[in-house]
Amino acid sequence: MKDDKSDFTQGSIPKKMIRFMIPILGALVLQAMYGAVDLLVVGRFGTTAGLSAVSTGSQILNLVTFVITALATGLTVLIARYIGEKNFQKIGPLIGGTTVLFLIISAILFIIMVFGARNIALLMQAPEEAVDLTAQYVRICGAGIFFIVAYNVIAAIFRGLGDSRSPLLFVLIACIINVFGDLFLVAGLHMNVAGAAIATVAAQAVSVVISLVIMFRRTLPFRIHAKDFRLGKECAVFLRIGTPLALQEFMTQLSFIAICAFVNALGLTASSGYGVACKIVNFAMLIPSALTQSMSSFISQNVGAGKEDRARKAMLTGMTFGVIIGTAVFALIWFRGDLLTGIFTADTAVVSKGFEYLRGFAPETIVTAVLFSFLGYFNGHEKTVWTMVQGLAQTFLVRLPLSYFQSIQPNASLTAIGLASPTSTIFGILLNTGYFIWMTRQMKKKK
Q1: What DSSP string describes 33-53?
Q2: Which of 206, 320, 326, 400 has the fewest Cβ atoms nearer than 10 Å?
Q3: What local confidence, expressed as pLDDT, does residue 6 receive?
Q4: 142-177 core/surface letters (b: 16 or more CB in 10 A; e: else)
Q5: Do 275 and 56 touch, CB atoms closer than 8 A?
Q6: CA–CA separation, 381 and 241 (whole Å)
């Protein structure tokens, strides 16, 4: 049974939300450090081509990770919903069925990333000097994709149970292993890109083993039987909720990969600068990401318990908290972005290009807190089809067209390309505000 700390249907909303969100944020910070440490160590002890390769290759890894995380959100939402309804007997078949499904997905990703690595590098328009190294990074990460997928699925299960601290422990251990692995393989053995990729996969593998040991030793409010490991009814329910989220995230990340390709066409310096900026962007987006993940579980529990007013207040609380933090992050990026990019490389030209992109992207740190709070609210209500629709609208109507248009201008500015992200987010806020008003009216009619 859930204890008071994981019962989101009563008590102070800000206190419980922040208590639940902080470990999620901590886990996201540490997870973001994977790519950041890879880039930092390769940037300092590797080559410029290696820096570009890790930058481009990590875009592919981010695509896979974020899509899997989005799909697994369906698992978090359903587990939290069943706990709110006290419907524990459905959780075992849900976890068993999704385990089989994610194993199939992992096998497909393994084949694509291992055997199609070079084609992926070429599709990304990796600079000529970095094509082979980019393919190498993608291939090694693809070989360990089972561990990467497993970690994100296990973390989703714990969050659905109202436990955000255990995933923090798992990723902390993995991050420590990754740091030492990078230093040993890249700085010590001079393995460049290959060393960074091997360290990442090894760290995830250890994290998965530890998380499974902890899960099997814990007293859970449900039981999983051998017969649950099949693609049954609960798996179909999961797909109904998770698939739209995964598709929306896939298209969003694909748009960022396309933007990476647009920037790669501008040369090696622009490519490396953009890659460094993206690592900083990953950190800047952690608060909104933590809001979405925590709010989906928080709101789903309250919806399951029939406490709609509390769910709505949680969304507004998340928006307020996110905007306050986002404003502080905006100021840091806008005024001292060059210092942040300088952490990753001593190449002044790369530092300048990275800062150039960050100046355009900076407003995103504020507006995305509002957007992601809306999405957490809708996900908690299982309105994931709408989440997908609004995400696709942002991607294809604003972010991609605007980024491409700016990239083909004479003396293309990375600042103008970076501005495409906050512009598309503001468009998304307008869409979601309209949908929220419509949804609220519909719920009032049903009362």
Answers
A1: HHHHHHHHHHHHHS-HHHHHH
A2: 320
A3: 65
A4: bbbbbbbbbbbbbbbbbbbbbbbebbbbbbebbbeb
A5: yes
A6: 10
Q: What is the per-residue pLDDT across 413-439, written as a single tens digit (0 to 9) for each? A: 888 998 999 999 999 999 999 999 999
Within 13 Å of residue 224, how many CA atoms lie on the same side as its CB?
Answer: 18
Q: Are 101 and 235 in contact (CB under 8 A)?
A: yes
234 near 18, Cβ under 8 Å? no
CA–CA separation, 164 and 17 (whole Å): 11
Q: How many CB atoms lie within 10 A of CB 66?
A: 18
> Is the pLDDT reported for residue 1 higher than 70?
no
The count of C-alpha atoms lying within 13 angstroms of the C-alpha of 248, restricted to the half-sphere facing its C-beta, is 24
Which span out of 27-36, 234-243, 261-270 was modeled with the highest average pLDDT? 234-243
Tens of pLDDT, residues 87-105: 888 888 899 999 999 999 9
**For 185-307, where are the alpha helices, taking DSSP H only?**
192-217, 233-264, 268-284, 286-304
Q: Give the pLDDT confidence score for residue 5 in this predicted structure.
A: 61
Give the amino acid at 107. A
Tally the residues of the chain: 447
Q: How far is the C-alpha of 97 from the C-alpha of 74, rounded, in Å?
A: 13
Do residues 266 and 347 touch, judged by C-beta distance below 8 A? no
Q: Extract the runs of DSSP E, i.e. beta strands, from 106-161.
A: none
Measured distance CA(135)–CA(116) in Å, rounded: 8
Cβ atoms 204, 171 nearer than 8 A: no
Per-residue model confidence (pLDDT) at position 35? 63
Please write the tens of the pLDDT for every residue from 355-411: 889 999 999 989 998 998 898 889 888 888 898 899 899 989 999 999 899 888 888
**E strands present in 92-165:** none
CB 45 within 8 A of CB 189: no
Name which of 407, 402, 410, 374 is nearest 389 in CA terms: 374
Closest Cα to residue 56, out of 244, 193, 186? 193
Give the whole-angstrom CA distance, residue 58 versus residue 279.
Answer: 10
Please identify which residue in the block is written with the tokens 């009814």.
233
